[in-house]
Specification:
Helix content: 40-55%
Structural class: alpha+beta
Strand content: 15-25%
Strand order of the largest sheet: 3-2-1-5-8
Number of helices: 8
Shape: elongated
Largest sheet: 5 strands, mixed
Bound molecules: dinuclear copper ion
Radius of gyration: 29 Å
């Protein structure tokens, strides 16, 4: 091969590499990381991306050089010269990808192992998923339950996830990981937030009509604010059983519009002006919560609303929820 050809192939390769690098760097492909786990995942992505850019540059350079250098006249319809196998070349193009893929596997395996390791003393928070809400139980006595995930920054947290009905999936984009909540088993997820801020848990497993509304807030705060959150909420008996809190933690707003709660979802009937159909309003509400198929509002299908609230809500919570709805009637 002549020197001029080598220079040309090199120039094509550098150009292709620059182009691919710009696409990789300039497009915001991922959200800004907020956890150590996501940092490691990003490292894996960049490790793989750099390898891909290098391979792309070599292949693109060879193609560009061949297309330009060996182009024939449009009217030349003769066959090209016969090509024989080249054992040396085949060994090279098998060995190099094998080494690269092995390297990616090793890096990924190390990152997976590190991301699963919560260390000796993580904060343990129990996450319960149900159509269509997330509930969080914090450590300590009395046990605090909330509809919001509050985490202290720079402390490893081990979430245990369970589901009361169907499969859901816990995902906070800025934390970089997902884990399914599966009925009957307990799954775990380790998060070490390294940046304070407000994020959103998104359910990423199609779990029913209210699936797109199945979100919950996450706040990463400093240690003092976290302690204050635990103490402040625990002071009120460990669990906020007001109707407003039940409405939020049970996920009612994911499907129903209710002005006092500021929700406007349209999956289920609106709750601002309920027509109890001749029954006392309180009885009608209680029945509709524990047995949603008993009376269907016009235009709404049966079996959309979960029929699990009789077991997932305590009597006090159910009473409070009914009162909250009664007081909110217009
Ligand atoms: Cu829960 Cu989708």
């Amino acid at each position: 091969m002549r020197r001029g050809s080598i220079v040309r192939i090199t120039i094509y390769g550098v150009l292709a590499g620059i182009l691919a690098s710009l696409v990789a760097v300039l497009v915001p492909w991922l959200p800004t990381s907020a956890s150590e786990e996501m940092d490691r995942i990003e490292f894996t992505f960049w490790f793989t991306t750099i390898i891909c850019i290098a391979v792309f540059a070599v292949v693109a350079a060879a193609i560009m050089y061949s297309v330009l250098k060996f182009r024939v006249h449009p009217e030349d319809e003769s066959d090209g010269p016969p090509i024989h196998g080249h054992t040396g070349l085949e060994i090279v193009w098998t060995a190099i990808p094998a080494v690269l893929v092995t390297a990616i596997s090793i890096v990924s395996a190390v990152v997976l192992a590190q991301n699963d390791d919560a260390g000796p003393n993580p904060i343990r928070i129990a996450v319960t998923a149900q159509q269509f809400a997330w509930k969080f139980e914090y450590p300590g006595e009395p046990r605090l339950t909330a509809g919001e995930l509050v985490l202290p920054v720079d402390r490893p947290v081990k979430l245990t996830l369970r589901s009361l009905d169907v499969i859901h999936s816990f995902w906070v984009p800025e934390f970089g990981q997902k884990s399914d909540a599966v009925p009957g088993i307990e799954t775990t997820l380790v998060i070490t937030p390294n940046r304070t801020g407000e994020f959103s848990i998104i359910c990423t497993e199609l779990c029913g009509l209210g699936h797109p509304t199945m979100r919950a807030p996450v706040r990463v705060v400093n240690q003092a604010a976290y302690d204050e959150f635990l103490a402040g909420s625990a002071g009120s008996g460990g669990q906020d059983d007001s109707g407003e809190a039940v409405f939020e933690t049970a996920g009612c707003g994911g499907c129903h519009a209710f002005a006092p709660a500021g929700t406007d979802a349209q999956v289920g009937p609106g709750l601002d002006a309920i027509d109890p159909g001749g029954q006392p309003l309180e009885d009608f509400l209680r029945e509709s919560i524990v047995d949603p198929n008993a009376v269907l509002a016009t235009g709404f299908q049966p079996d959309v609303m979960p029929a699990t609230y009789e077991s997932s809500l305590s009597d006090e919570q159910l009473d409070a929820l009914v009162q909250y709805l009664v007081e909110g009637q217009q």
